[in-house]
Request: fold
Amino acid sequence: MNFSIRVGKIADMPSVLELIKELAHFEKEAEAVEISVADLEKDGFGNYPLFKTFVAEIDKEIVGMALFYPRYSTWKGPTIHLEDLIVKKSKRGLNIGSALYKKVIAYGNNLGVKRIEWVVLDWNTPAIAFYKKTGAKVLNDWQTVQMDDKAIKNYLEIL
Reply:
């Protein structure tokens, strides 16, 4: 099956949101997705875009995507964070995920970033093996820390 990869457009955001929801379901957090198509359109295509996407298409149907954004490391300088990379379950095994991954890596290389980073769930052993095979380091000594909006408000109230 032939597929193509291109830069995501605002008209792609309904399909991107469906892929985000599919990924959340895969990661056993289906109810955690709060954003809307309007949020994606505003945040990705407003005056100050917060992210970029690459999408994979087969016969004009979006079957995969990678969403990423710039970060800055005080040790390294400019970096990219790959937030999500997902291929529809029915289209896996066609090397679409590998092609999206390579597109993000090439994009970062062209920008001259010093690092591309992402997180992977510890139980997603096929993904971990793939990343290691490509030369990525999986860091076991760093823990992801998050504070959701409720925790932010609670913390600020106790100050």
About this structure: The first strand starts at residue 4 and ends at 7. The chain is about 35% helix and 25% strand. The two ends are 57 Å apart (CA to CA). Residues 10 and 33 are 19 Å apart (CA to CA).
